[in-house]
Amino acid sequence: MAPWIQALGDGAWTIYFGRAITRQANARALSFCSLLARHAGTGVLTGILEWTPAFTSVTVHADPRQETLSGLDAALLDLAGQAEDQLPPGRTWEIPACFDENYAPDLHSLAEACSLSPEHIIERMQESMLTVGMLGFMPGLPYLDGIPAEMQQPRRKTPRTSVPERSIAVAGTQCVIYPWQCPAGWHLLGRTPVPLFSLNWKSRPALLAPGDSVRWRPISVDEYLELEQACAAADWQPESLLADAQTQAQTPSARFSLDSEGCAPAAVAESRSCLEILDGAWGVSVQDEGRSGWRYLGVPLAGAHDPETFRIANALAGAPEGSAALELLGGGPRFRVAGPAVRCGLAGDALLKVSRASGESLEIPSGRGTVLKPGDVASVVCHSPRPAYLAFSGGIQLDPVLGSRSTYLRSRLGGLEGRTLQTGDRLETGSLPASEQGCDLLLGPDPAREPADDAAPVELRVIAGPQRDHFTPQALEQFYSTVYTVSPQADRMGLRLHGPALEHGELGADIPSDGIVPGAIQVPADGMPIILLSDAQTTGGYTKPCVVIRADMPLLGRLVPGDRIRFVEIGMQEARRVQHEAAAAFRRRLDAIERLAVAGAPDESRLRRANLASGIIISSSNE
C-alpha cells in the first residue's frame, strides 16, 4: 500500500503507511523516521520542527516560525515513498508485573466479554511476547503489539478520568503501561513496579524503544511493594531487566541530547533578583513556550495555555521572547522582592497589588509592566479562572528540563520539581538595569478585539481532521450547527464538551493511535467531543473530525467551564492567511507598547522629543 498524507491542523501532517497495525506498516513508519533524521533541515524540509512516530504513521510538526510551508507536504510524501520494510533491531526485557485483583479492576469484565476465565486471561498475558511499536500519549508510555486474539476487545466506551501510575492495560491487539496517573480508556489488567521514564538513567530517559520485545515476569503483591521501593531509588538503573546483555538500541529521533536548546537565555549571575513566595496560591506554575523535540518519546509540548497573553506579559516585563513566567489559573501568588529591582509584567484578567517598602500602596491593572524594588511585597488578584501571566525582567531562571522550563504536572517534569508554586519557594529572575528603573511599560488597547458579547458563543475555526470520514454526513452537519458547552471536566490537557453525541459511521470510533496536536478535537465511542489543549498527549487512538487553527489557539486557551462554543470549518489556504494576518497584527501590538516615566524619574521619551542639549528635565508634581 502506498503511503498517504493528511493535514493535522494548519501546522502538522500525518503520513500513513497502513490502516491496520501490521509489522510491515510499523517498520515503514520507523524507517521514515530514519529518513527524516537524515534529510530534515535540507531544502523544503527546513520547515520541520520534529516528528512523532506511531504504529502505522508518523506525524510531522512544522516550525511555527516558518513564514511559508508551501511544498512541505509534497516533499514529505515523496520521502515516505522511500521507506523500507525492515524493523530496527531491539532489546528483550523481562518486566515484573502483578496481576492481583487489587491491581486489575477490569480483569473480570474483560474475561466475561471474552468468554474466558480470569485465570486464563492472566495465563495468556504471561505467555505472550509483545513488541514495542511506538511511544506516545505521555512520556515513556509504550504501545506493545501482540495481544492474543481471544483477548482482544475494543477500548472502553467512556474513558476513565484517572488510572493509577504504571498500570498495565489492553485494548484490541495492543497493550500499554501508563507511566503516571492519567485519564485512559483501556482495560486495566495489572501493574508493574518499574518506572517507564526517568531523567536519572544514564542511557536515555525512556525505558523502552520501538522494536524492543517485552515479556512479563509475574510477581506477588509483596514482591511488588518491595520492588517498587527499590526502583524508586535515585541510583536504580533499568539494565537489570534486560533478558541478556544487549547493546543500547538507537531510535530515530529529532534530538538526542538533554540540553537546554530552545530556552530563552539565562541572565548572568551578577544581575539576578529573587522573589520570596509568601503565598503560592492554587494552580500557579512556571511555563514558557514549551518543550519541542521530544514528542518521539511521548513528551508533550506543554507550555503556556494562552500563548498571546503569555507573550504580552513577557513584553511588559521587558523579558526576552519565550522567557519563563508564572501562569495563574484562577489564583495569584503573594511575594516579596528579595534582591535588586525587577520589572513585573501582568497580563490577563487580574490586578497587581503592591505594598512598597516605603509604605506606599498601589493597585496596578493588568497590561502594565511595573518596577518593583527591594522589600516590595506584591500580590495578584485574579478576577476569573481564565489564564493570567506574571512575567519578570530577564525571565524566571530555573534549570531547563529537556530544553524547557515549562511545568508538565502529570509527569512531574520541569518548572519547580514538576509541581505548582508553594509557600516558601524562592524564584530567581533577571534584575532590571538602573537605566530601566525610571519607567513602566504600558500595553495599548487591542484594535482588533470587538466588544465582548456574553450571550454569543465563542467561534472556533477548524480544519477538517484526518478521520472526518469516520462520521456520518448527518453527524458532521449536526456538529457544525450545535452550540456546545464546556463541561466541568476541563484542565490543561483538554476540555470535554456537553452537547449531542456525534454518530460514527461504518469505520467506527477506534483507530490505530496516531499523532496529536493541541487543538485537535477527538471523539471517543460515546460520541462526546474532547478538545485537546497545551498539555495534550502526543498520540491518541480516537477519531479526530477536525482541528482548531493556530490563530484561534489563544481563544481556546481562555475557555473555562460553562463557556459556549461553536465550530466553523475553513480551508487550509484561509487558515494560513488568517494565521499570517493574526501574527502580524499581534507583533504590531507588542511593538506599540509605551514607556511611561515613573513619578520623580526623567521621562526619556520627552527628552528625545524635546532634543534638549542638557539632557535634563526638571519634573513638577503639577505636570
Structure description:
With 623 residues, the protein is α+β, with helices and mostly antiparallel strands. Mean pLDDT is 89; it is low at 247-261 and 606-623. Strands 5-13-6-7-10-9-12 form a 7-stranded mixed β-sheet, with helices on one face. Strands 15-16-23-18-21-25-34 form a 7-stranded antiparallel β-sheet. Strands 26-32-30-31-28-27-33 form a 7-stranded mixed β-barrel. The protein has 4 domains: 4-80, Gyrase A, domain 2; 92-241, Cyclophilin-like (Cyclophilin, Beta Barrel); 269-442, no CATH class; 458-583, Cyclophilin, CATH 2.40.100. Pfam families: CT_A_B, CT_C_D. Keywords: ATP-binding, Hydrolase, Nucleotide-binding. One of its GO terms (molecular function) is ATP binding. This is KipI family sensor histidine kinase inhibitor. Residues 3-208, 296-585 form the Carboxyltransferase domain.
**Residue-averaged pLDDT, rounded?**
89
Output the number of helix runs.
10
Return residue spans where pLDDT drops below 50 for at least 5 consecutive residues.
Answer: 247-261, 606-623
Supply the helix-strand structural class. Answer: alpha+beta
> Could you tell me the strand content as a percent range?
25-35%
Shape: globular
What's the main sheet like?
7 strands, mixed
* Cα-atom radius of gyration: 26 Å
Question: What is the helix content?
Answer: 10-25%
Rounded to the nearest angstrom, the distance between the terminal CA atoms is 77 Å
Number of strands: 34
User: How many discrete domains?
Assistant: 4
Query: Going across the major beta sheet, what is the strand order?
Result: 5-13-6-7-10-9-12
Domain Carboxyltransferase: 3-208, 296-585
GO molecular function: ATP binding; hydrolase activity
Protein name: KipI family sensor histidine kinase inhibitor
Keywords: ATP-binding, Hydrolase, Nucleotide-binding
